[in-house]
Amino acid sequence: MGWTATFDVTLSDTPGGNPPADGFSFNYGNIPQGDTGYRGFEEGWGSDTPYLSVEFDTWMVGDAEHGFNVGVDGTDVPGGFVNTDLITDGQTVNASVEITYDPTDGVTLTVDDGGGPIDVFTDLATPGFVGDDNYTFNFGARTGGATETLLIDNLNITTAAAAVPEPASIALWSLLGLVGVGFGFLRYRRKK
Predict the structure, then answer these.
(1) How remote is the C-alpha of 96 from its chain's centroid?
(2) What 8-state DSSP symbol labels residue 146?
(3) How many CB atoms lie within 10 A of CB 131?
(4) What single string gives the DSSP state of each residue in 82-94?
(5) Whole-model pTM?
(6) Peptide bond preceding 132: is omega within 30 degrees of 0, i.e. cis?
């Protein structure tokens, strides 16, 4: 199953406190409802269940590992990390996010912080991940030292259903199927 998720996000950091921390993730997988046990939060869901994670890591601005990331089952996918400052001390960032997962093409992430859409990832392969219609979606987040505020608004998830023939096509195929059964029946009767 493919899908597209859109949402607005506000990240805000208290000036002069701890560095911005830690970020959030948008996850899709075999995630049990009501499970509040420790998970990776901004690093995804955890490694004990199949899942896909799109990560927004704000910890340690200027460090080697912060920014955008895509992971499968707790492991970063090749080419799925973009090191960039998402927020700095005392800053507030508002952005619109669009994440698309296509079972064939992978993940596309577009972020617009008011300066126009930026394609962070386009058709990023997610090796080893296979979606399922029974999988669920969730956000994981934490704010180290309680200095960062995360607000999510206007969440919309649209799934891409498998191609289904239009009703006229279904009726035609049903009719042709009945005609085929009728011919088979007539052929069978004549042999006796």
Answers:
(1) 15
(2) G
(3) 18
(4) EE--S--TT-EEE
(5) 0.78
(6) no
